[in-house]
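Quick one, probably user error.
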């Protein structure tokens, strides 16, 4: 039987093990601080504040099927000045257990963009059908996710096609223990 109390009890470390653990944790903390400070040295559009709320959900339906749903709410300011609202859903099937997911979906996107040199906005609605394929890979402790998405975009009186590729890389920064907090460094890129 599994003993929760015993699994949460930290092990005793000798002085050498403690010094090594302390050194590793200090290095990881400096790595996190360095990557966290990168945006301070970047240059981007002239904006004082913005906000982006995101919800992603994936509900398993039986052994092979899943329901994907997401909401993205972007603001020009903290809240209330809508930039974009994206609602997306889809039905997927795992082609192999826990991997190689093929999904068919629909998205609705409402954008409110400012007109140049004005405080007036224009509103654009978009309906989007999409098909995507997600595959996962493991290379040691590193986890890779590849997403290929083909979209048919209906933007008011216009029709556009778009292919997108998304790569996600997850690297655990700590060893996995039942009682420790796990840090993950994530890098992702998207091209469309």
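Nope, works fine. Designed sequence:
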């Amino acid at each position: 039987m599994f003993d929760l109390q015993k699994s949460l009890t930290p092990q005793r470390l000798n002085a050498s093990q403690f010094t090594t653990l302390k050194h590793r944790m200090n290095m990881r903390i400096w790595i996190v601080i360095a990557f966290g400070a990168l945006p301070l040295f970047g240059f981007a559009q002239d904006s004082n504040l913005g906000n982006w709320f995101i919800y992603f959900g994936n509900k398993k339906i039986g052994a092979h099927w899943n329901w994907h749903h997401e909401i993205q709410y972007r603001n020009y300011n903290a809240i209330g000045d809508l930039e974009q609202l994206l609602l997306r859903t889809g039905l997927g099937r795992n082609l192999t257990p826990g991997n190689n997911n093929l999904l068919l979906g629909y998205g609705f996107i409402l954008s409110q963009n400012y007109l140049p040199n004005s405080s007036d906005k224009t509103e654009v609605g978009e309906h989007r059908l999409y098909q995507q394929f997600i595959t996962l890979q493991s290379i040691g402790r590193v986890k890779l996710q590849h997403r290929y998405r083909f979209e048919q975009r209906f933007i008011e009186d216009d029709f556009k096609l778009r292919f997108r590729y998304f790569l996600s890389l997850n690297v655990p920064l700590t060893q996995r223990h039942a009682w420790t907090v796990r840090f993950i460094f994530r890098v992702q890129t998207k091209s469309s």
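The chain is about 15% helix and 55% strand.
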